[in-house]
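Cross-check.
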Amino acid sequence: MSEISVNTPQTPQAEKVLEVRDLTINFRAYGGLVQAVRGVNFDLHRGETLAIVGESGSGKSVSIKTIMGILPNNAIIESGEILYDGMDLTKVDEAKMHEIRGHRIGLVFQDPLSALNPIMKVGKQIMEVLTRRGMSRQDAYQRALELMRDVGIPEAEKRIEQYPFQFSGGMRQRIVIAIALAGDPEILICDEPTTALDVTVQAKILELINQIKEERNLSVLFITHDLGVVAQMADRIAVMYAGRIVEMGTAEEIFFDPRHPYTWALLSSMPDLETYERLEAIPGTPPNMIHPPKGDAFAARNRYALKIDFKREPPMFRITETHMAATWLLHPSAPKVDMPEGLAARIARMKEAAKNVG
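Predicted model, tokenized:
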């Protein structure tokens, strides 16, 4: 990550393929209601990669499970809508959601082992998606071979007859991607797809997802806890904390001009090859979402918190047409607070590296 480049942002006028509006989701747990997602809004444009970033428990994966219709039984959709192709996905029946999951929206899981049937050959698992779409078994077999080659599986004719345990972690994830692509989706959702992989394999999987996105003009929702993972693939980034989106902008805006203290903290904890100073850990722990704090949920962990942060939740302040953040530091009456010096120096290095790459 010594040379960080960012993608050219999508134009705001690009066609929207997915719209999430005021999504609020609670879970029944521990004798109360856990407020997992609180009024989340975002759009996904055709042909773009939108990354949703945040610590574990921030609500990013719950938002994605809602889109896919795979929430657990103790989840309650309190409000909101998810608009796709003229439908509200929070209201369609299971039969329709099964069709959408199989043919319209593909999902790549964090752990490929949990996504694959351990006692079924990988070729058959890919073919199942194809035959459900009405393809003959002979054609499905040939298409499964093509998909395995497309995702970089060597000796596909031999390996199509093998079981998941005969593949490495990276190769299993490629099989999962092939299964997701078998439905010929227009949206690909990647939920922490590289977390279980080592760094070199991780880079190859990210490169593969980018390549497939370009070849098929896919729209990609990429979920991760690691901002560094999406540095070279995201067009836009939404930063989530305690069930809310606290900052959203183009990749260039988030990496080079972050405005929310939580985004500062995430970037300050991100390792790279040019930083010799000690990385900063985010102090404290996320709040108890059975009893969320009255004001800004990040206030207790925020060294730059103002008095108002403990009393009132900040609204979204618009910085540019594409960049916004929910922090009282952006209020016209707030005192001027600069980002940490170490982060400012790192961003200066990133800008210089990106200029040299360009």
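The first strand starts at residue 16 and ends at 29. The chain has two domains: 1-104+188-358, 114-184. Passed to J.P. for a second look.
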